[in-house]
Amino acid sequence: MIVDVVNPNTTGSMTALVAEGARAAAGPGTTVRAVTSRSGPASIESHYDEALAVPGLLEAVLEGSATGADAHVVACFGDPGLDACREVARGPVLGIAEAAMHAAVLVGRSFSVVTTLARTAPRARELAVRYGFGEHCAGVHACEIPVLELETDPLARATIAAACARALDDDDSDVLVLGCAGMTDLAASLSDELGVPVVDGVAAAVGMAQALVLAGLSTSRRGEYARPPAKAYAGELQRFALR
Amino acid sequence: MIVDVVNPNTTGSMTALVAEGARAAAGPGTTVRAVTSRSGPASIESHYDEALAVPGLLEAVLEGSATGADAHVVACFGDPGLDACREVARGPVLGIAEAAMHAAVLVGRSFSVVTTLARTAPRARELAVRYGFGEHCAGVHACEIPVLELETDPLARATIAAACARALDDDDSDVLVLGCAGMTDLAASLSDELGVPVVDGVAAAVGMAQALVLAGLSTSRRGEYARPPAKAYAGELQRFALR
Amino acid sequence: MIVDVVNPNTTGSMTALVAEGARAAAGPGTTVRAVTSRSGPASIESHYDEALAVPGLLEAVLEGSATGADAHVVACFGDPGLDACREVARGPVLGIAEAAMHAAVLVGRSFSVVTTLARTAPRARELAVRYGFGEHCAGVHACEIPVLELETDPLARATIAAACARALDDDDSDVLVLGCAGMTDLAASLSDELGVPVVDGVAAAVGMAQALVLAGLSTSRRGEYARPPAKAYAGELQRFALR
Amino acid sequence: MIVDVVNPNTTGSMTALVAEGARAAAGPGTTVRAVTSRSGPASIESHYDEALAVPGLLEAVLEGSATGADAHVVACFGDPGLDACREVARGPVLGIAEAAMHAAVLVGRSFSVVTTLARTAPRARELAVRYGFGEHCAGVHACEIPVLELETDPLARATIAAACARALDDDDSDVLVLGCAGMTDLAASLSDELGVPVVDGVAAAVGMAQALVLAGLSTSRRGEYARPPAKAYAGELQRFALR
Amino acid sequence: MIVDVVNPNTTGSMTALVAEGARAAAGPGTTVRAVTSRSGPASIESHYDEALAVPGLLEAVLEGSATGADAHVVACFGDPGLDACREVARGPVLGIAEAAMHAAVLVGRSFSVVTTLARTAPRARELAVRYGFGEHCAGVHACEIPVLELETDPLARATIAAACARALDDDDSDVLVLGCAGMTDLAASLSDELGVPVVDGVAAAVGMAQALVLAGLSTSRRGEYARPPAKAYAGELQRFALR
Amino acid sequence: MIVDVVNPNTTGSMTALVAEGARAAAGPGTTVRAVTSRSGPASIESHYDEALAVPGLLEAVLEGSATGADAHVVACFGDPGLDACREVARGPVLGIAEAAMHAAVLVGRSFSVVTTLARTAPRARELAVRYGFGEHCAGVHACEIPVLELETDPLARATIAAACARALDDDDSDVLVLGCAGMTDLAASLSDELGVPVVDGVAAAVGMAQALVLAGLSTSRRGEYARPPAKAYAGELQRFALR
């Protein structure tokens, strides 16, 4: 099976990192294709960034569907454009926040999210509530490292580890969720260090995508997620018009 | 005060209709500027349409803010891009679903939404829940008229009126909410006919925008809605990069 | 349009303060009439006070409706008698807690309430939950200044400002709501000082009342809020019997 | 132990009926004192009636507390003035809607309420949600018999029985709750007829009042329900001022 | 009336303690029969213990029903096997966590639970949510004393009292709930010491069981709690097969 | 990887069916071991059955963990004993209701459950709420076929298909969930017939178990799900005592 992992920001080095995390969690028989969006922000750290990442993301998903993808993972913790992707992808589409939170409640009572900038914390909480996990999400904690500095800041890992430890203490939670695709490489070692499950959304999403495909499940075409009605599009996004 | 009403689809005739509804609800001393998005779908009837309407909407909001808008109304019942608009607009930003639902719970116990296509009904319900009105939203009903046919279908008003009457009966609700900006001209006469408050989101949003401005309130810049961090943007949306 | 602002306690000096706040938020073309209840407690600081303020409040609303009020604002943060007022007023009726919370969620993600006595804090929380804003209300904080000392205590403003600052820190919220009509004069300066929107319920309620009237909306007469059935009343409240 | 059952409307014949229901559910060693309010509406069928019943109710509770009542039951299904009563009563105070709903969830999965006028149905639903039983309350059904006609309408029992049967079918519930103190005499025979538990709030409240007293529990005086602060009262309700 | 109080662990000395608490809360005319389970764990401190206590508990309830019990109390704060007991008992069945939480919300706004081991705290929170009291349950605090050491640890009472005081402060609650049947003897003195209602679930459950019986209420036989279908049982639990 | 699928009822033919469904959803490299409980009910159709199935289930999970199972699936839609299994299993443990509901919300907006006997429907609803999917679960429908007749009743498939079609219509849902392990063989053909995703919990659980194992995740040992404290067990379940 082919699982496409789309990095909806336009930074290729982050895609490489994500690809590694995705491949580590893929089962035998699964091919992971990692894709970088061709337009939009270099990193996603605001609602504005998120909104403007979606056209590039949709393009990648449409192309992936046309070239054999059996499932798609959107590798940004804000889960941008998820509903729109579901309408046009052939197979199931998973967001990494969504997948991480689903996995987290399967291995513990309550989870803490450790994210990048504090400004993204309320969004993570909002997603938890929207997905049904308001009671399980015990807190969201920021480490105040911008997304693109996760790769370059020599103190990044230590800062994140400290935020994780503090989160467990403050929230009395039993599971950690890493709140950024760029932290995918840290989950295993943080779990060893902290003695709790540390959920990386990239791995969780790849696993759940596989699970859905193996079970023969894809997005429902009854109602909300049916293929969008064909219509005219104007201006620079004109090529997105579906026939 | 200047209130910008942005039609995030690219159909100018609909903007004209919306402008009329907006002006009727504006108080003395308020100038309503009606704006049509320059790129994206001709009408918004799917998550896909919604997502691809947002860049054009953001452009209109950025321009409006730069040219004196004190508040902004996003005139599509899916409330696309609301959070992103809030980050970059100078004044408050209101969605019409949001404003309509807020108004509805102030004049009754429970409301029914009458919307266009059935595929948009779950989205309306989701918004009600997200805004805190899950207990107040008694039902969402579709009249199955596409957005752009609201203006042209000679039976549109009768069909909508019938859906409204059925909604009140089925849901035991006491307020109606019209689920599309293109229905703005129907609220008053439907209210007379049905004997209940019928909320048009355009009017509600203009009124609430005025209320916030008069009270000296605008989107908080503490945390989530602070101005987005400056960063590089790649590809065709490059010009959206904030400095 | 005429908006009646009723102070449901019997302290005239507080009405004067409230009138000022209300007029500052009224648009051109709106006349604010400020009314003091003729019977009941000098201030409202308990459920007992609240319950016993309602007959005087209802009297004021009935009189206001009979003399041309287009909308009514109940200027006590406990929102006493709101449902009863709605049944008998000609136009819409807004409580200041209700209006403040509605405004707060339109300009931020989560709000903290700063109120007078600690004993009223759970009531504020209860109202937030009842109105649908349980997830948005991040905390309620008391400054332990009795209502009537807000006007006389020289340290009142400083104490409230300190409570506001603490609330933002403790709750990680981005909007403040002032939990007493008697704080209406502080909103603007506290907002300047603290750098976040500070919502005064009096201003918010006047603005929302205007918005509803401009949109042609008033309380539904279908079902719960229909005019109460006529019936006999006994004892000292006999004159309240509706025909 | 002495349990006061206060009928907050001013109709003595209804008090007599309620007294009987209360005594039937009282254990050995419990004296039930039934009290009729001295001022306010002859029956409670609106928020307006409810609000204006509260002063008379508070008077009865204050007198009862001063003359030895160990607990108080407020015998109106809208639970008027409950919080205020709790602040000034010596012992615990139970509303009959509250007690009925508590009892209902202890003997089944979900309950249907059968009430008098349709206009009171949303209030019953609101109480269920407020008490925490939104998920358990499967529906509220009106029989459209005014409160005072429950005693005189020869078809009342049959109409109520039919509404109960319909409620079980429509709601797929397993418990019924009678939504008016004036239905207290019907619970046992309806239960026999319908084969499900039928909860009368008067009996439930007396039983729970006893349970609390036997367990040594009364309303907390820490915080919200502490005795109200002493203060001046103006106008006709002046005598309610607490010292 | 006969109320059976079943201790679902197999430690007789704890049953004796529970019996005393139960009898103190029983009204005149009520006989309390205290029963110790014959199989399973010596104390219940995990989901595993809870699950394995249920067969012994069911045996005790079946025997009690056959020998005249009018109601049953399950004296473990995890409320093990409650639904199963309800299906097979003749009269109503109360769990002590359930009863304690019901009582707590009747005498205050919000309660804190003080329990034994920290590992049981999330379970207490889960029960609060399941019963509808998620908004009322302000916190759950552990004193880290194993169940069986409650009777032997000379510092147990002091440790629990300290946890109670801390809970009130941390949670801003106004009622305490003791989270273990083995704390039944402490409620009265802790209430005196701390000045708030302290709810012991054993007393609360006995009182509520009486209330239900006096009101003629028992578990509904319509639907979920009807007698289980007869069927074959295999292996060592074979004798549990119902005919 | 080894995934143990435990049938917690004692009917071997049903285990065989379940094994087939499980194997069909397992990825390459996964060995499914299907196990039948050695004690308890022949089928699970009540809370009583469920409770008495748990000792046999725990035995199977303990044995499986000791013999190399990397994950466990509990193949009964009531998810019996899940928390207890999690405390003692080496790897993650999935219930089939839990897994099915998780999968359902990933491929649609709202799901309907089609279950066996009506008496189990409220339990399915309760699980949906407990897992966070109360808003997504649009309805639970019974086909009134006892569990063991699913295999023998020649009309079973047709009856279930009809219930599924009715559920989609009544609930306006877009996904179906089969509410019994014994329906595992029907999912694919029903999905073809009805044109919506039909989720079989057995397949979903196997897939999610694999996803968790591949992501290196297992039940947290911090807090609630730590290994239970060692202690004495009395009576016939004595051998369950952990050291």
How far the N terminus sits from the C terminus of chain A, by CA atoms, comes to 28 Å
Residues in helix, % of chain A: 40-55%
CATH fold name of the largest domain in chain A: Rossmann fold
Give start-end ranges of low-pLDDT stretches of chain A: none
Q: Would you tell me the overall average pLDDT of chain A?
A: 97
Largest interface: A-F, 54 and 54 residues
Work out the strand percent of chain A: 15-25%
Instruction: Name the strands of the widest sheet of chain A in spatial order.
Output: 2-1-4-5
What spatial form of chain A do the alpha-carbon principal axes imply?
A: globular
Order of helices and strands of chain A: EHEEHEHEHEHEHEHEHE
Question: What is the number of helices of chain A?
Answer: 8
**Helix-strand makeup class of chain A:** alpha/beta
CATH class category label of the largest domain in chain A: Alpha Beta
| Oligomeric state of shown chains | homohexamer
CATH architecture group name of the largest domain in chain A: 3-Layer(aba) Sandwich
Task: Please specify the SSE layout and strand pairing.
Six copies of one chain form a homohexamer.
Chain A: E1 2-7, H1 12-25, E2 31-36, E3 40-41, H2 47-66, E4 71-74, H3 82-88, E5 93-95, H4 96-106, E6 111-115, H5 121-131, E7 137-142, H6 156-171, E8 175-178, H7 187-194, E9 198-200, H8 201-214, E10 233-234
Parallel strand pairs in A: 1-2, 1-4, 4-5, 6-7, 6-8, 8-9
Helix pairs in contact in A: 1-8, 4-8
Please give a structural write-up.
The structure is a homohexamer of 243-residue chains. Chain A has 243 residues and is α/β, with parallel strands linked by helices. Chain A folds into 2 domains: 2-95 and 204-240, Rossmann fold (3-Layer(aba) Sandwich), CATH 3.40.50.12500; 97-200, Rossmann fold, CATH 3.40.50. The first copy, chain A, contains 8 helices and 10 strands. Chain A has a 4-stranded parallel beta sheet with strand order 2-1-4-5, sandwiched between helices. In chain A, strands 7-6-8-9 form a 4-stranded parallel beta sheet, with helices on both faces. Chain A starts with a strand and ends in a 9-residue tail after the last strand. In chain A, 70% of the residues are buried. Chains A and F meet through helix 4, helix 7 and helix 8 of A and helix 4, helix 7 and helix 8 of F. Strand 10 of chain A pairs antiparallel with strand 3 (40-41) of chain B, so a sheet runs across the interface. Chains A, B, C, D, E, F: This is Hydantoin racemase. Chains A, B, C, D, E, F: It holds the Pfam family Asp_Glu_race.
